[in-house]
User: Fold this.
Amino acid sequence: MGAQENDLEQEIWRRYVEEHSASDRELLIEEYKPFANMMAAKLYANRQVDEIDFEEYRQYAYIGMLEAIDRYDPQKGASFKTYASHRIKGSILDGVEKHCEHQQQITARARLREERMENLLQEVGEGEQDTFMRLVDVAIGVAIGYMLEDSGMYQAGEGSYEQNIYHSHEISDLVKTVATLVATLPEQEQYVIKHHYYQHQRFDEIAKQLQLSKGRVSQIHHRALRRLYEHYDQLKLLRTDY
Assistant:
């Protein structure tokens, strides 16, 4: 960058620090986008996971760049690029880490649901002779399972439920209802439900903790769901015309 361009950059910074005008901010963003792209490209080239594409890296870089623009003080002596490089790198690394954690959580929950379905099918198959009633039993088990899972995620502070199709007070009521109903279960059933849905533990992990077989834990799980369904009038969520 030549001396004239450098003087112009400093003038833009002076105005932005004093006036915080949107037009000067846009000029600074356009000025430093190539720098943010370069940092994103460097970190992407040295990535250790392949699940995230370059566009994600670039977006995280832009977030760091915008934070740096809004917080940078030219009077402290450091150049903007020196100051911004730390924020941009931190933004990318934090974003990638959260993305990977989120993907891991999605994968883990998908596996839990698959295991849950297999156990429901097994338990229902052993306990019901009528094909239609077996299907009803599985449907009920799945519906209660999702309700318990949603309630557990809300208790853990995960997700963006206040922006979801549910209103926050409805979810709050659901959490209270579920907690009340789970508390009425026998001790072993409570343990299985809480650890499987709220703490996302697999049946084999719960089996080791309870010193039971995985099949026995599956039976306890199915019995707990059936017991919860007996209170469907209280749930107001699982009414059917079966």
User: Anything to note?
Assistant: The domain at 128-235 is CATH 1.20.140.160 (Butyryl-CoA Dehydrogenase, subunit A; domain 3). The radius of gyration is 27 Å. Residues 66 and 159 are 25 Å apart (CA to CA).
